[in-house]
Amino acid sequence: MLGGAAALLSLACIAGTAVAQTEVKIGYALAPNSHYGVAAEKFDEVVSAETDGKFEFKHFPSSGLGGEREVIEGLQIGTIEATIVSSGTLANFVPETGVFDIPFLFRDLGHARRVLDGPVGQEILAKFDAVGLHALAWGEQGFRHITNNRNPITTPADVAGLKIRTMENPVHLEAFNTLGAAPTPMAWPEVISSLQQGVIDGQENPLSVIVSVKLNEVQKYLTLSGHVYSPAMLLVSKPFWDGLSDEDKAAFEKGATEAATAMRGFVDDVETSGVATLKERGMIVGELSTEQKAAFQQAVQGAYETYYKTYDKALIDRIIATK
Ligand code: PAF
Q1: Is the C-beta atom of 186 inside 6 A of ligand 1?
Q2: CATH classification code of 20-321
Q3: A single Pfam family, by name (predicted)?
Q4: Which of 11, 75, 88, 259 could share a disulfide with 43, CB 3.0–4.6 Å?
Q5: Is the dihedral of CA 56, 268, 227, 134 positive or negative?
Q6: Where do the structural domains in the chain lie, given as residue ranges?
């Protein structure tokens, strides 16, 4: 009898694997034609090719599953399988992640990519398994710049009292408070309507976001401040990850690596073309000179005292020392 039951079970399994695909709901904040959309598409394509279509990706772009924090919580409880997110709320899950949000930490995109792909970045990725998440790869958004409707910005005094939306990120909040602005942490899905209604004067995001979301429709001034690098991350749910075979895990790892490369390629392109696009769309664009940027760096120094209390100075020094 036992033999018969086992045979029936294996028949059912064979029939099941022949027809059933495992659904992978992937949520992200931006549109399909953004750096996130391009990465999600590549992730889907590679995993599908590597597993002969065993997984069916269902895409939820433009915050279709909620804000980034809500989506990450969905991953933890296993109701959402995958996401691509900024570092906005990641420090609320793995505090060490916040070290990358320190203003003026990275010299350029190459420096940031070498740190994230090197030992420091990989050590931080590994910490996500302890909080119900599995981090597959670092992607990126680029360097963040300030947009607003109140005035052009060339000196720290120009941001005094500016009602600026920040991500729900304590490191960014500290920086804008130190600069004398009036920062409001806010989930991304509320930002456009808050700008339209004048609840906030401005926000800050990389060119990749400003261009794809068409922030020019609700913002007049763009200041190329490059005040902080904005990493992104490809994450899957730990309960989902633990249920995968080793072959499937390898397919997801390959997919995430290729997705991150596609995302960085997209960012490289928009870093080259984005300013011209936004000027054509009517934005008034100003770039901080080296001296003007140094003045912002100086004005934000006070925040470093807090950062050194939160993050190991040796870790910050290791990042700065990365060639
Ligand atoms: O500003 C943010 O919250 C993020 O940069 C965004 C636009 C949601 C992309 O991850």
Answers
A1: no
A2: 3.40.190.170
A3: DctP
A4: 259
A5: positive
A6: 20-321
